[in-house]
Amino acid sequence: MKTDDIHLVTCPYCGEEIEIYVELDVRGSYIQDCEVCCNPWTIRVSREGEETYVHVIRADGSE
Known about the structure:
Layout: E1 4-10, E2 17-23, E3 28-33, E4 40-48, E5 51-58
Antiparallel strand pairs: 1-2, 3-4, 4-5
C-alpha cells in the first residue's frame, strides 16, 4: 500500500519540472513554493477512484 504519490509538475513561473509528493489523503488546495525560483504556487489536488489529479497555478494574485 502506498502512503503518498509522486507527481511531476511544471512551475508556472520558471518552467522547471519538479517532483512533488502528495499524501494519499490530501484533497483540495494548498500553497507551496517552487524549489527552484521560490515563487508561490497554488496546488489543487482532486481524486477520482484510483486516479489523482494535480494542477499547479500561480499564487501571486495574478490567477
